[in-house]
Amino acid sequence: QVQVVESGGGLVQAGGSLRLSCKASGTMFALNGMMWYRQPPGKERELVAQESTEGRTTYADSVKGRFTISLDNAEATVSLEMKNLQPEDTAVYYCGADVRTGWGRDDYWGEGTQVTVSS
Q1: 3-state secondary structure of 54
Q2: Closest by alpha carbon to 105, among 114, 117, 96?
Q3: For 5-28, how does the pLDDT look when each residue is reduced to its tens digit (9 = 90+)?
C-alpha cells in the first residue's frame, strides 16, 4: 500500500507565490518519479510538471519559467514552487508517485490541495 499526501495549498493574490509539498510512503520497491497534475474548475485534469528519478523534468507550457518541481528521491518527496501565480492557475493540485511495488508498476495519487489565485 502506497500513500501520497500533499500540503501547501491556499489563497494567494495574482503575482504571488506558493509552495506545494508532497510525500509518498508505504511499501515501495522503487520510485520511478513524481508529478503534479491540476484540475481547474469545470475542466479536465492536466499535467503541471513531473520529474523522474533520473532527473528528467517536464513542464506544461503554461507554467514554464514560473513553476519549479524538485524531487528528493531518497525521501520520496516532491515540491512545486509556484511564482507569479495567475487566476488561471486556480485548481485542485494533485501529487502523484510512479512506483514499482510487489504488484507491478502504477501511479498513486493524493487527495489534492486547493490553490486559489485572486485577481
Answers
A1: coil
A2: 96
A3: 999 999 999 999 999 999 999 988
80 forms beta bridges with 20, 69
For position 28, what pLDDT does the model report? Answer: 87
Q: For 46-100, what is each residue's pLDDT tens digit?
A: 999 999 999 999 999 999 999 999 999 999 999 999 999 999 999 999 999 999 9
DSSP state of 87: G
The amino acid present at 79, given as its one-letter code, is S
Residue 47 to residue 39: CA distance in whole angstroms: 9
DSSP 63-82: TTTTEEEEEETTTTEEEEEE
Task: State the cell numbers at 24.
Answer: 509518498
Cell of residue 2, nine digits: 502506497
CA 50 to chain centre: 7
Which residue type sits at 48?
V
Q: CA 101, CA 118: separation in Å to the nearest integer?
A: 41
Partnered with residue 26 across adjacent β-strands are: 2
